[in-house]
Amino acid sequence: MLEEQQHLAPHPQAQAQRAASADNLGPLPPNWEQDMTPEGEIYFINHTTKTTTWYDPRIPAQRQQVKHLSGKVFFFF
Fold first, then answer.
1. Minimal CA–CA distance to 69: which of 27, 6, 8?
2. If one looks up domain 2-75 in CATH, what number appears?
């Protein structure tokens, strides 16, 4: 799963929505951390599974999207 995610970049609109609403989502689940790439993209670290993801664990996956480097947008259900 981690290898797949390394080929994906967050969709700019989804990234902005996530940042704007982060205050309303409450704290991250236990053992999770939020960080930012040098380019300013927000990502999340699960210290339990030692994995990273572009998806905010506080938001249902079906409400999140990722834009592949090819330009295709993927929605996860």
1. 8
2. 2.20.70.10
